[in-house]
Amino acid sequence: MDEAQEALENTSYFVAVALAEEALHLARRSNDFARMARICMPLLEGQRQIRQLATDAGSVFLARSAEEVPRPIAPGCYLVQPPLIGMDGRRLREVACEHEIPVFVLTREPLTNAGLWPIVGVGKEVTRVRLDPPEPLEVVKGTPSRDAWDKAPHARWFVNAAERLGDQAIADAEAVAEGDPAAYLVDDLLDRLPGAPEHEKLHQRLMRACQEAAGEPLPKTPRRRSVVDDPFSF
User: Fold this and answer.
1) Spatial distance between the Cα atoms of 216 and 67, rounded to a whole number of angstroms
2) Which of 4, 163, 179, 186 could cysteine-pair with 20, CB 3.0–4.6 Å?
3) Within a domain: residue 226?
4) Is 90 in a helix, a strand, or coil?
């Protein structure tokens, strides 16, 4: 945690995020919820700076295949769409982070019959929220995306969609942990954090859950959640 804070001060944001994530999981394995709460803020700040660098780059890319991703990966916002799936979007973010390239990635699934785009975030648990596309679209059968969208969305839509995805991650975690010890909510939030790592309120909710867990006795029974058959996409 101290090294992450030092990296932040030196504007080494990718290093800070990696160190903070490692510290967060080390603290969780030790049931040190108070320290987890303190780690959340450096992690949030590192992710905020990376997101800001990505949006400041001023580029929004549409990726329907690996070949449509710039080589080398360029800073900016990326909308990943079918036939690529949620795990492809997560992998794009991971590869960019490995090379310290600021990207902001969302993945959409095929257009629904109601004219909505499912936006999906992949962590240990999958978060999915259905939103209006940037403009009304008709169903085009026989295409991977079920529509004719072939351009990058405008930045305002992109940021709003990411915000809604993170809000859904919080709601999903709170719903499955309702009535459970705060330690279970901590884990339910952690399971969804990789799917919406740029979402500030998700980090803040995790911090509060950690603070609550620090004031409670450790649960005597392990957390149990139903198994959902979801291969991370449609």
Assistant:
1) 50
2) 4
3) no
4) helix
